[in-house]
Amino acid sequence: MAATSLAGAGRRRELTVLLSAQAMAAMSDALVTVGVPAIRESLHVSGAQLELIASGFVLAYAAGLMTGARLGDHGHRRVFLTGLAVFTAAAAVSGTAPDGWVLIAGQVVQGAGAALMVPQVLSLIQLRFAGLARARALALYSVVLAAGVAAGQLLGGLLVTTNAFGLAWRLMFLIQVPAGAAILIAGRLTLPATRRPAGHPTCPG
């Protein structure tokens, strides 16, 4: 019984890491959408640049999603952590961007990091959980997907409105840095090395 309880606690920690990363990715695009007016005023970007800032994350994410899912077959933990590290570093670049082009680059790279990270969340849930535990994990995954977007909009509006520490829209990106670093450390300590068994289809996430 003790061994079973310990195993269950370990799986819960794994799920917490995975869903935390998923929530951060879901919130990211919503944060940018809310922050667009403040970004335009602060960086004095052109209309074309503003469009790229608003869409760069989503475009890079969509373009790289299938590739990220395929790469996961060679090591889900490794690809998840790599994507999370890229995502977090790009958030730091975006939050300190001196002009529109650097912010665009940061958002494109962050979207690419999410494309590596996000497919591994669903793949690891499928591989590490079974039966009722898997059903519950997938239900929580769905809730996080929906709630992450709403939370991103609310948080983005709050940060821009309050202008905490005088950072305005920059804080929307900078708060992702310590959060991403914490999830990265927890992931390294918690997630097991896995590969999809031969003959199983890749889950695109």
Which properties best describe this structure?
mainly alpha; single chain; disordered C terminus; disordered N terminus; 205 residues; Growth Hormone, Chain: A
Secondary-structure blueprint of this entry?
Blueprint: H1 2-43, H2 47-72, H3 76-95, H4 100-128, H5 131-162, H6 170-174, H7 176-190
Helix pairs in contact: 1-2, 1-4, 1-5, 1-7, 2-4, 3-4, 3-7, 4-5
**Percent in helix:** over 70%
Low-confidence stretches: 1-6, 201-205
Determine the strand fraction and express it as a percent band: under 5%
CATH architecture: Up-down Bundle
- Envelope shape: elongated
Structural category: mainly alpha
Largest sheet features:
none
Number of domains: 1
Task: Give the overall average pLDDT.
Answer: 86
Give the distance, in angstroms, between the N- and C-terminal Cα atoms. Answer: 34 Å
Number of helices: 7
Count of β-strands: 0
> Using only CA atoms, what is the Rg?
18 Å
- What do we call the CATH topology? Growth Hormone, Chain: A
Order of helices and strands: HHHHHHH
**The first-level CATH class name:** Mainly Alpha
CATH superfamily: MFS general substrate transporter like domains
